[in-house]
Each structure stands twice: as structure tokens, then as C-alpha cells.
Design goal:
128 residues
């Protein structure tokens, strides 16, 4: 079992920055591929960014490339999503997730169904 606890987020003006954090417990972070998803009101959950178990590979959805950055600190079992140049359309609930047991070091999972564990979600609101 993996537990994911998110923090950060909040309200920011367009053009501003926010960072959301995700603390993992139950398994060592270095053994986990991780991902961030967003879900806007009355929309389906969407992939934002993922990082492989090794940390050597990342994948970003096109709309956030150059603005968002995923990083991981294996020493503290924490994954971060740094969000810069935020836009009103980035407003959503952001979820941290992991597949769990993973034997692939370099694979980045991008589908909602590929992830088995989810954080509680963290609201990010960008005002215009």
C-alpha cells in the first residue's frame, strides 16, 4: 500500500507561481514512478506530467511544457510540481499518483488507469 499526502496549492493571480508537494509513505519513493493529474470542474481527470521510477525520464502534456516542472526528493520521499506562468485555464484540482509496484525504471505512465494510488487532491485556482 502507498499513501500519498499532498500540500501546497491555493489561489494565485495569472502569471504567478505555485508549488504543490506530494509526500509518499508505505514505499520508498525511489521505487515508484509518479505522476500529476488535474481535474477541472465537470471534466475528466487529465494527465499533466509523469516521472519514471529512476527519475531519468519525464513526460509533460503540451499545455504545460516550459511552465511546469516535476521533481523528486528521494531522501524525503516527496515529489514536487512547480507551476510557473500560471493561467486561468490551469485552475483545477491537482492529484498526485503512483502506479505502485513497478519493475520498469525508465517508463512514464500517462493514463489514469495505469495509476493505482491517488492523493486527496489539492485545489489550484488562478484568477485573471
Amino acid at each position: 500500500q502507498v499513501q500519498l499526502q499532498e500540500s501546497g496549492g491555493g489561489l494565485v493571480q495569472a502569471g504567478g507561481s505555485l508549488r504543490v508537494s506530494c509526500a509518499a509513505s508505505g514505499r520508498t519513493l525511489s521505487n515508484l514512478a509518479m505522476g500529476w493529474f488535474l481535474q477541472a470542474l465537470v471534466k475528466e481527470r487529465e494527465f499533466v506530467v509523469g516521472i519514471s521510477r529512476s527519475g531519468g525520464r519525464t513526460e509533460y502534456t503540451d499545455s504545460v511544457k516550459g511552465r511546469f516542472t516535476i521533481s523528486r526528493d528521494n531522501a524525503t520521499n516527496t515529489v514536487y510540481l512547480q507551476m510557473n506562468s500560471l493561467k486561468p485555464e490551469d485552475t483545477a484540482t491537482y492529484y498526485c499518483s503512483t502506479k505502485g509496484v513497478d519493475y520498469s525504471e525508465g517508463y512514464v505512465y500517462m493514463g489514469v488507469s495505469e495509476y493505482n494510488y491517488w492523493g486527496q487532491g489539492n485545489q489550484v485556482t488562478v484568477s485573471s
